[in-house]
Amino acid sequence: MEVVGEEDGDTEGKRKNGHSKKEEKKEDNERGEKVQKKKKNKRIETSSEQESSEEVEDEVEEEGEEKPEVLSPEELEKLKEAVDERKKRISTLRGKPWPMRKKLLTLRESHEFVEKYEGALGKGKSRKLYAYKVMMLKKWMKFQRDFENFKTACVPWEMKIKEIESHFGSSVASYFIFLRWMYGINMILFGLTFGLVMVPEALMGRPYGSMPRKTVPRAEEANAMDFAVLWDFGGYAQYSVLFYGYYNSQRAIGWLKFRMPLSYFLVGVGTVAYSYMVVIRTMARNANEDGGGDDNSFNFSWKMFTSWDYLIGNPETADNKFASITTSFKEAILEEQESRKDDNIHLTRFLRVLANFLVLCCLAGSGYLIYFVVRRSQKFALEGLESHSWWERNEVNMVMSLLGMFCPMLFDVISALENYHPRIALQWQLGRIFALFLGNLYTFIIALMDEINLKREEEEVLKLNMTIWEASLYNGTLGANSTAPPITVHPADIPRGPCWETMVGQEFVRLIVSDTMTTYITLLIGDFLRAVLVRFLNYCWCWDLEAGFPSYSEFDVSGNVLGLIFNQGMIWMGAFYAPCLPALNVLRLHVSMYLQCWAVMCCNVPQERVFKASGSNNFYMAMLLVILFLSTLPAIYTIVTIPPSFDCGPFSGKSRMFDVIQETLESDFPAWFGKMFSYASNPGLVLPFLLLMVLAIYYLQSTSKSYKQANLELKKKLQTGPTADLHAAEQNEENKKKKKMAALKAAMDLEEAQNARSEAPRQQRNNNASQQSYRDRGEKKGGEHRAHQGKSNHQIPPSATRPPAPRGHGLPGPLPGNQRQPAPSVQRVPNSQRH
């Protein structure tokens, strides 16, 4: 028991000792904290500004946690400085040479500090107002960021195009960007025609069956709803708002008194003007973004070190980005290889001339074939289309579609002879297909002009027949003095003219539909079915179908781009006679985007030579501008020169279509306004104005070229600036050294000349003294010398063998007949001792 008690006492003592030690440690810790605080306060007064701000931040954190409401003016000033310091650190954190972990930690701490203490800089209401402003500013910044993300997400098909670009390169993606741009243009054209032409006529115009132009003829009623007739846009489709002939020539329709003929004309002109404006504006913006110059300086270094986006958090996006970087390296490598390639120039020229000759033969053959087919179709139309087959009725459209499908393939084979850079080869291919489509289209238009002339002749005959028919109907049904009401004839039974405008609109609609169907069928058979056969028959075939023939198909950029451009040209050309064409084109482009995106990703493979597309798609835009100009010429010609049909369309009864403008000016505007318009439209004013515009365009183009050249020169100077400055500095140093050496040499020569001039009098005196001594000696020894002259040869004194002294300025040499005197020895002072 005692032992246990002793043990308990020992344990109690140890516990007491432990408690006392803990209390001592706490006291020591408190003392240490106080000392540290004192040291911190001293350090604040003597340390640098950055250290003082950090210590003030620590003190502010401690005080803020304890008493956030009570802050003295000095503390508020310190808090403001600390907040400003943290904000500055946040803005300059990106340029710090710190590890990423340290940057993230510092950024997080700085944000937390600013968010916690930024609102404490005011008092009472001002503090709440400041906190409210800070909160609203943050919400506004978040709204702006979300709105930018929303705008990016609202761009149609952006992610699809980015994915295609990452796998197939920028050349294939440029086609889909161009398709999206065309879709936007056609949406505007569709809105104009649908909202200002089709809807007003459908809602406020006369209904179907109220007049002959809005009624199917009695002979066609039986087959008006057949699928074959509707597929050819005949029957009820022909007598609807889809075509020109359905619209009434009544000046104002509906309770709104809507000017239908004026609206139809202005919408037709406005769509063309808007198209011109948008195309030219896009070309100018692309030219400004391009800027000229060479952007390939340190190309591989930039791609290696700056291509990756570190904000990517989606695995699929990361895969697309990786594929995009890989494709961009392929493009850059091909550009470098093409810039260093050296070929046999004579063989290359011969092959290029041969290729152009073959292309010209193909173009001539296709033009003759279309002209032959159109002449045949006119013959079939005169004989009656009912007695001919489906191919003979649709021969023109099918031949044009097949030529547009197979001729580009032939041009692609021919272009392999030329050995151009892929981008230049694409431009040549586009130009050739452009010439093919343009020739085919104008051949088709010329044939249509012939058919229009036939329709107008038929119309003149019908006018005479209708006059006879009306007279016979009147005379056969009414007596001489009859007062009965006139007999009403159903509109379906009234004879009507051929309406050449509706015929032109039908031809363009059929051409658009047949071209669209040909494109989709070629896509499904030529790409999808081919890919399926190669994929599944490769396991049981004799050779490798994927690597050899037929392999997977490549995406034809040139053919698809030209298809888009000429499809749009036909829309511009035929929209005046078929207001439904913009709606059909919008539907076609919408389906084409999804179908071709799917076909590219599933059925096509990247090209073997992936090349970079042009920075600005101005080549596409230039071709689009040309086709816009060429497609509006036939429409303008028909509007200005050919009289409209007498019994169909909004301009029936007028000598020319543009007479609706003069009619509106006379009826709805004052007389003075009509006079001003007639004076402004006078050719004497219009031609000088056009000439002035041409001169202004020429001047602006010349100025732009000079600015571009100056920009290129500045870029060259910037690129060669450091090396040129270094070379100039080295040249200056060399010139300074040369000048210094020349100055030293001149100083040495001058000093030697001065030394020689100072020694000359002394040397002359020595010479005179030596000559006098020699004369004295000679007189004394003259007798002895003459006595012994015959006995022995005289001995030459040793001094006589020395060379004569140099003759200086004012220093005479030895006289003739006298012995040479020894020259005094002069020691040269070394160069190092002269100074």
TrEMBL record:
Residues 818-835 have a biased composition (Polar residues). It is found in: Membrane. It is a multi-pass membrane protein. The keyword Cell division does not apply. One of its GO terms (cellular component) is plasma membrane. The chain crosses the membrane at residues 181-204, 261-280, 353-374, 395-417, 429-449, 619-640, 679-700. This is Transmembrane channel-like protein. Residues 1-10, 51-66 have a biased composition (Acidic residues). One of its GO terms (molecular function) is mechanosensitive monoatomic ion channel activity. Residues 763-773 have a biased composition (Low complexity). Pfam families: TMC (PF07810). It comes from Coregonus suidteri. The keyword Transmembrane helix applies.
